[in-house]
Amino acid sequence: MHYVSTRGQSAALPFSEILLGGLAPDGGLYLPETYPQVSGAELDAWRKLSYADLALEVLKKFATDIPVADLQALVKKTYTAEVYRNVRAGESAAEITPLRVLEQRDGTTVMLQALSNGPTLAFKDMAMQLIGNLFEYTLAKNHAELNIFGATSGDTGSAAEYAMRGKRGIRVFMLSPHKKMSAFQTAQMFSLQDPNIFNIAVEGVFDDCQDMVKAVSNDLEFKARQKIGTVNSINWARVVAQVVYYFRGYLAATTSNEQKVSFTVPSGNFGNICAGHIARMMGLPIDKLVAATNENDVLDEFFRTGIYRVRKSAETYHTSSPSMDISKASNFERFMFDLLGRDSERLRALFHKVETEGGFDLSGKPGSDGDEFAKVAQYGFCSGKSVHTDRLATIRDVAQHHGVILDTHTADGVKVAREHLTPGVTMIVLETALPAKFNETIVEALKRDADRPAGFENIEALPQRFEVMHADVALMKDFIARHTGL
Ligand SMILES: *Cc1c(COP(=O)(O)O)cnc(C)c1O
Q1: Residues with Cβ < 8 Å from 62, sequence gap 6 or more?
Q2: What is the pTM of this model?
Q3: What's the gap in Å between 433 CA and the centre of ligand 1?
Q4: pLDDT digits (tens, 9 = 90+) for 400-457
Q5: Does 198 fall in a domain?
Q6: Residue among 113, 277, 409, 441 whose CB has most ligand 1 atoms within 8 A, to mutate
C-alpha cells in the first residue's frame, strides 16, 4: 500500500515513510492510492473482536510495511483498560469506546460513543496514544530521534504530551498562550514532570504561539538539524487510528451487515469525520456522516451551499466549544480530493484560489468553480450548526431528561444529530470530550460542577513545571537547541 499526495506532485510512499511527517513535499495531504475494502465476511468476523484486535485488522490494511507481529504488540499496548480508564457508571473500560443509548426519538435510536476515556479526557487520545507507540517503535528501528514542536490552545497539546511522555527518542516542546488556557487544561499539561516534555507559556495569544511555530519551521536548516517534527491533525496515522472506532461503533450498534448507521461528529479541522469518510469508502455501511460545527461554521456553510470560504483569524470566534474554533478545516482537502474524482490538477487550482481569494465555489451556479456539490450527498455528508445558546439548552435538556452531562462539543453534536434523524437508522453521536474539561460552561448551564473522573480531583494543586517566554523566535530556537544538545 502506497500513499499519494492530494496535490499530485510528490512521490508515492509506504506508510512508515509518511508516518513522522505532516504535509507532503508538494504541500498536499497523503491518502492511500486506493481504499482497502472490507467484505461482509470480514465484518462478521470482526463483530466479536476486542478493540485492540479490531485495530490490528484495520491497521494491517494500511500499514502494510510494518510486520503484523509488531503492529499487534503496538495495538495491545495502546488499547488497554489501563489507558482508557476514565469511564462513568455503566461503562466498561475494556470496551475502550463504550456505546450507550441516549434516547429514542423520531422513530430511531440516538446513541453516544465515548471516545474520551483516555488520559486527557478528549477523543484525541484515541489516535495520539497509538502515534506515541508507533513513533517510538519507528524511531528505535532507525536509531533516530524526533523533537515535536507545536502550539496548542488545549486539547491537542495535552493529548500529544500524554502520548509522548517517557518515550525514548522523543521530546515535546509545546507552546501555549500564558494564562489563557483553563485552569484544568493548564494543570493537565504543566503538572507533567517527565524530562522529555517541555511546556513553554508564551506571553501572548494562541496566534503568537502559532507564528513562532511557523517561523521556526520555515528555518529549514534549523528544523533539519534539530530533527523537528509535528503531530498535527493532518498526520495520516492519526486519521487511520480514528477509522477503527467507526467500525467499532457500527459493530456495537448492529447485529447484521444489512443494517446501516449514521454518525454525527463534532467537527473542527475535519480530522475526526474524515476518518468516517474513509471507513465508508472501505465499505462500512454508513448512511449519513453529519458534521456538527459551532459558531465557526466553515464546514456547515460548505455542506449547505457548496461554497468553501475560509475565515481570517480575526473572524474566528472564541466559543465555549473551543476545540472546534477553526478558521479553515485542515483535513478538508482529503475529502475534496475524492469529491473531485482525485483530479489533483483541479484540486491544486481550487486550493490556490483559497490562498489568493479565500475560497472556492462548487455550487454549480453561474460563475462558480464547478458543480461537484451535487455529488456531496452520495458520500453521505450533511451538516448543521450549534451556537452557545443551543449548547446550553442541549446540556440542560439531556441532563434533565437522561441524567447525562454532555461536554460542550458533544452537545453541539447532539443538537445537530437531532436535526438529521432517519427512522430506523441508528444515529451515533461521537462524544469527543468529558464535561470536566469544560466545567465553566457546565456551571453556566446547570449551576453545578461536572463530575471529575478519579485521579483528577486536585489536579490544579499539583506542582507545575513550565517556562514563561516572550514571543521571540530567537529565544525559542535557543531553548530548543539547549535542551536537545543538537
Ligand atoms: C479536536 C476536537 C474536536 C474537533 O475534531 P477535528 O478532528 O478537528 O474535527 C472536537 N471536539 C473536541 C473535544 C476536540 O478536542
Answers
A1: 1, 15, 32, 36, 240
A2: 0.96
A3: 9
A4: 999 999 999 999 999 999 999 999 999 999 999 999 999 999 999 999 999 999 999 9
A5: no
A6: 409
Residue 388 structural domain: 95-120+237-446
Alpha helix segments (H runs only) across 142-219:
155-164, 183-190, 206-218
Atom index in ligand 1 nearest the CA of residue 330 equals 8
Best of 265, 324, 441 for a ligand 1 pocket test (most atoms within 8 Å of beta carbon): 324
**What is the 266 CA–ligand 1 centroid distance (Å)?**
7
Residue 361 sits in a domain whose CATH number is 3.40.50.1100
Whether 37 maps to a domain, the answer reads no
Residues flanking ligand 1, CB < 6 Å: 122, 124, 155, 233, 266-272, 323-324, 409, 432-433
Q: DSSP character for 354?
A: H
3-state helix, strand, coil in the chain (%, to 5): 45, 15, 40
Give the total number of structural domains in the chain.
1
Q: Cβ distance 239 to 15 under 8 Å?
A: no
Residue 126 included in any domain: no
329 and 268 in contact (C-beta within 8 Å)?
A: yes
Residue 283 lies in a domain: yes
Residue range 347-368, pLDDT digits in tens:
999 999 999 999 999 999 999 9
Do 122 and 323 form a contact (C-beta atoms < 8 A)?
A: yes
pLDDT in tens, 140-194: 999 999 999 999 877 889 999 999 999 999 999 999 999 888 889 899 999 999 9
324 Cα–ligand 1 center, Å: 6
Count the neighbouring beta carbons within 10 Å of the beta carbon of residue 443: 12
Instruction: Give residues with Cβ within 8 angstroms of 301, minimum separation 6.
Output: 307, 308, 309
60: which residues sit within 8 A by CB, 6+ positions away?
68, 71
Q: Do 197 and 455 touch, CB atoms closer than 8 A?
A: no
